[in-house]
Amino acid sequence: MTFFKLQNELSAGNTSCFEIVSAFIENIRSKQDLNSYVEVFEDSALSRAKEIDKKIEAGTQGKLAGLVVSIKDLLCYDQHHVSGGSKILEGFESQFTSSAVQRLLDEDAIIIGRTNCDEFGMGSSNENSAYGPVKNALDTSRVPGGSSGGAAVSVQQGSCHVAIGSDTGGSVRQPASFCGLYGLKPTYSRISRYGLLAYASSFDTIGLFSKDIESCELVYQTIAGHDPLDSTSANKSVNIAPAEKKAPYKIAILKNAFADEGLQGEVKDHFQASIEKLKNAGNTIEEVDFPLMDYILPTYYILTTAEASSNLSRYDGVRYGYRAPKTKNLESLYKMSRSGGFGDEVKRRIFLGTFVLSASYYDAYYTRAQKARRLIRQATKKMFEDFDFVISPTSATTAFKLGEHASDPLAMYLSDLYTVQASVAGIPAIVIPDGQDKNGLPIGLQVMADDFKEQDLFSFSEYLKHIG
Amino acid sequence: MSYPDKYEVVIGLEVHAQLSTESKLFCGDSTAYGAEPNHNISVITLAHPGTLPKLNEKALELAAKMGIACHCEISREMFFDRKNYFYPDLPKGYQITQDRTPICKGGYVPVKLENGEIHHIQLTKIHLEEDAGKSIHTEDAKDSLIDYNRAGMPLIEIVTEPVIHSSAEAARFLYEVRRLVRYLGVSDGNMEEGSFRCDANISLRLKGQKELGCKVEIKNLNSFKNVQRAIDFEIGRQSSMLDNQKEIIQETRNFDPQTGKTSGMRKKETLTDYRYFPDPDLSPVHLSEEWLNTIKADIEHIPWDMERELVEKYGLPEYDAGVICEDRQMTLYFSEVVNHTDNFKAVSNWIMGPVKGYLNDNKREITEFPLSAEKLAGLVRLVDDGGLSFSAASKHLFGPLVLNPEKDVKLLAEELDLIHDHDTLALEQIVSDVLSSHPKEAEQLRNGKKKLVGMFMGELMKRTKGKLNPKEAKELLMKELS
Hints:
The structure holds 2 protein chains of 2 kinds.
Chain A: H1 3-12, H2 17-30, E1 37-40, H3 42-58, E2 68-72, H4 99-106, E3 110-115, H5 149-156, E4 162-167, H6 173-179, E5 182-185, E6 205-210, H7 213-223, E7 250-254, H8 256-259, H9 265-280, E8 284-288, H10 293-311, H11 330-341, H12 344-357, H13 362-386, E9 389-393, H14 409-414, H15 420-425, E10 429-436, E11 442-448, H16 454-467
Parallel strand pairs in A: 2-3, 2-4, 7-8, 7-9
Antiparallel strand pairs in A: 1-3, 4-6, 5-6, 5-10, 9-11, 10-11
Chain B: E1 7-18, H1 57-69, E2 73-74, E3 77-78, E4 81-84, E5 94-97, E6 104-105, E7 108-112, E8 118-130, E9 134-137, E10 144-147, E11 154-160, H2 167-184, E12 196-206, E13 216-221, H3 224-243, E14 251-256, E15 261-264, E16 277-278, E17 285-286, H4 289-298, H5 303-312, H6 318-324, H7 328-337, H8 344-362, H9 373-384, H10 390-403, H11 409-415, H12 422-437, H13 439-446, H14 452-463, H15 470-481
Parallel strand pairs in B: 13-14
Antiparallel strand pairs in B: 1-11, 1-12, 2-6, 3-17, 4-5, 4-16, 6-8, 7-8, 8-11, 9-10, 12-13, 14-15
C-alpha cells in the first residue's frame, strides 16, 4: 500500500500508526538475517506512533503523519546511537538531531531505526560495515549495493515507507538500482548536511529511497531547503510546484557510456530498450560526446579521499567513541585507537587523502583535481543548455555476489563509473526501476538533470510509468 | 666585538588577539572568560560527528576593522582553510584558519620609538582563525586534563614582516597593537587572561648582510616585559653561539619568566606538514564595498590619530598626549572635558594628576570615575577664575567632590571655606612656592620640627615685604603642609 492510500486509511480510522509501526517491527524481526538494520528504535518509534495517533484523532497531525522512515547510520537523532557503520563510534549516542531528520519529525514522521551501511559511506557493496554485510532481499547471496545498502533493503523488505540514505558518489543510486527502488540524489546543497556524518563534505548529499515516486517527492519537499546550521546549504527556495517541463523531452546519452567493457550485456540491452521506448513516445534522444569522461573517477577519488582524511581526524579516541585499551602514551592512543577502530577501506582512503594533500603532492593531485572538477561541472552543465536530461545505466552490472569484489578495491571503485558524474558536478540525479535481468535482479535507469531541477526528475519518473 | 656592533637582530612578530565577540568563531558557545572548565562547549565545539561550523559575522567585522585601521588591503573574496594536525586540545583534528586568503593583506602599524622617531612596522597579513582548547599537565597526575572552553574562540593573528630590530621596538609595537585593538573594541587585549599573546621569530645576521640568519621561534609571550626579556636573552644566546662558530638550529623555544631564559621545546624538529586545504564545510566569503564602508564608518578613534590631535589641536605636550591616549576611554573623557573649558593643558594636568591617582588608588577605570566631564571642567574654571590654587583644589576640594559628585563645585568650595580673595590666593601661592624651594626643611617641619615655623615665617615676610597677616600666613603654611 502506498503512503497516500495509507493516510486515507489512517484518517478513516481503519488503522493506526501504532499498528503500522508494530507490523514494521515484526517485519524487521522476521527478516533479521538481511542485516539491514543496526538498531531498531522500537521504544521511541512506538511511543511516537501513539502520540501521532492522538494527533490524527484530534486532526492536528503534520503532513507526514503515518510515514515510517529508516535513517542510515550516518544521521544523527538526539539521544539515539549513531556509529557510521564503524567500530570507532562504538557506543556513541548523538546529542542532537540532524536537520533533515528534525524536519521529518516536525511533520510527524516516525523514525523506526538506523540502517546498516558501509563504514562512513565508503563502499559500493555494504560489505565494509563493522556490523557485517547486508544481504539483498531478492537474493541473499548477493549484495544490496552500497554504501546505503541497509537503507535500500529496509524499503525493499517492506519495513518502512521511505529510507533516508546519503549519496557521495552513488551511494543511494547504485543500491536503489540493485534493489529495484527509486533512489534520489538531490542537487548538492539542497538538503542540509547538518547532522550527517561527513565523508566528503563537498560531495555528500542526503538521498532517498522509496518504492513509489510520490512519497519520495513528498519527503524531498519536506526536508529540502536552506538551513542556517549548514552554511553550504542553498539559499534558493524549494520548488514544490509541478514541473513546467513536459514531454516530449530532449534527452542526451553519453557516447562513452556504451564503450565501457564492463557493461553487462543485459544492462546494455535494457538501456537500449528504454531509449527505443522513449523515442517511440516522441522524445528526442541524441548521443553526446563527453571528452572529460576519463577524468571523472580520478577527480572524484582524489577530492573525496582528501576531504575524508581530514573529516575523519576527529575520531581520535580522545573525546568519544572507541579508545584502544592499554595505550602507553598519546601517540599510541592515537595509533591504536584509529588502527583498531577504522576498517580497511576507511584506512585506505585516509592514506590516499593524506597523500594527495601532502605538501609535495598537493599541486599535482589536489589542485589539478579541483581544476578538473570545475571543468567537469562546466561541461556537464553545458549539456543542459540543449537537453532536459542525461540518461545512463546506473551501474554496469546488476547486484553482484557477496565477496565477489572484496579482494579488488579498484574494480569496486570502477563500479561507480556512471554515478560519480552527478556527484562531481553537484547536479541532481534519480534512479528509476527499469526491469530485471534473467536472474530476476533489478536494473535501474539513471536520469540526471540540471541544478535544482528535482521537480523535473519527479515528473519524468511519473511519465516513464505511463509510457511503459 | 659582538652584538650590537657585529650583528643585527631581525625580529618578526605574530600577535594573537582574541576578538571581543559574544560567541565563538563557528558556533554559538559563549566566549566569557573564567567559566568552569568545559562549560562553554556545545556539540560543535567538541566536534561531535555530523556537526558543521557556521561563521560568526561579528568576527569578520572586527577583523576587517583592524585591517582598515592598519591600512591593510581587505580581501573581497576569501575562504577558510583547514590546518590538519593531531592534538587532544584540537577537537576536529584540524584548526580552521586562513592560509591562502587572509582577510587583511599588507598594511602597517606606526610605532614611536624612545627617540621620538616613528617607524612603520610592515604587516604581512592579518587572518582569522579559531583557538584550540587548553591542555593541563600536572606534575604528579598520571593523566592530562583538557579544557575545551577556549576551543573555537575567535582570534586574529597579526603577522609582521621581519622588520623589527630591537627588543624595545618589539615591545613598543606590541603596545601599539594592543592599544589599537582596545580602541577599536576588537579585543580586550587582556594579556593576563591570554586574550592577547605573542610569538617572536628572532634571528641574527652580520651587520650589512642581506640574507636572514637561522630563526628561532619563541611561543606564547604574555607581557611586554617578557617579550623584551626573551628577545634580549635570545640575542645574547645566539650572538655567543655565532661568536663560537656554533650552528643555530631552527626550532621553537619556550621562555621561562622565572629564569628569564629560553629553552628548546623538542629535541628533534621535523617540519610538520599541515596539509592545508580549503574547508569544504564553509562557503567562500564575499565582502561587498557597501559592507566595508559601514565598517569604515564605524571606526571613530585610532590612537595615534587621537594622540596627534591632542598635540596639534589642543597644544598638549607629546608626553601628555601619550599618557592620556593610553586608554581610549581616557581620551574620550578628555575630549568631553575640553568641550566645557578652553584651558586644555589644565585639563591634562587634572587628568594626569588627581584623576589618574584616584583611579589607581581605587583600582577603577575611567568609565567608573564619579565626576562628569562638566564637573572636572568646573574645577578647572574655578582655579582659572582665581578662587583657589590648583594645588589647594586638588588637595582639598577634589576628594570631597568625588565623594559628593552631585554638588556644585563652587558651592562645595565655599562650604569648605576654600575660596579666598585674591590676596589670600596670592599668599597661598607664595606659601606654596616657599615650601617647594625648601623641600628638605618642609619635610622636617612636616615631621614635627616645629621650630622651623619661624624660619618659614621669616621667608614669607621677606617675600611679601612684610605685608601679611601673620596668623593667616601661619594657618596657610600649616594647611599646605598637611
